[in-house]
From TrEMBL:
Residues 1-17 form the signal peptide. One of its GO terms (cellular component) is endomembrane system. Keywords: Membrane, Signal, Transmembrane, Transmembrane helix. The chain crosses the membrane at residues 44-64. The keyword Cell cycle does not apply. InterPro entries: MMgT (IPR018937). It is found in: Endomembrane system. It is a multi-pass membrane protein. Belongs to the membrane magnesium transporter (TC 1.A.67) family. This is Magnesium transporter. It comes from Suillus fuscotomentosus.
Length: 106
């Protein structure tokens, strides 16, 4: 439940920071000062929204799955694993691929 609250607060804080940035840039444009940095409170609000969003997303994520060989073999049978194709052999092609043109084999 708290993870959804964190995500909601992060979304609201980020939207508020975006609106505050728009207002600040509109004010700078109206005053004829297009240069200027953002106020620190907008930057801090954006960073807080990022931290809340990361915390909420990581708490909201499902538990990690086990990726060991033993857990993979629980899902499969030995017949399914042994029926796969083996490695391809290129021994017969090696004579032609790596032969010099002077051997007369080509």
């Amino acid at each position: 439940m708290i993870e959804k609250l964190f995500l909601t607060l992060a979304t609201l804080a980020l939207l508020h920071a975006a609106y505050s940035t728009y207002e600040h840039l509109s004010l700078l444009k109206a005053l004829g000062k297009p240069e200027g940095s953002l106020p620190l409170n907008i930057v801090y609000e954006s960073i807080l929204a990022l931290i809340l969003g990361l915390l909420g997303a990581s708490l909201n994520a499902p538990p990690l799955k086990d990726i060991t060989w033993a857990s993979e073999m629980k899902k499969r049978t030995i017949d399914g694993m042994d029926s796969r194709l083996g490695f391809a052999h290129y021994k017969s092609r090696g004579k032609f691929l790596f032969a010099s043109p002077h051997d007369g084999k080509i």
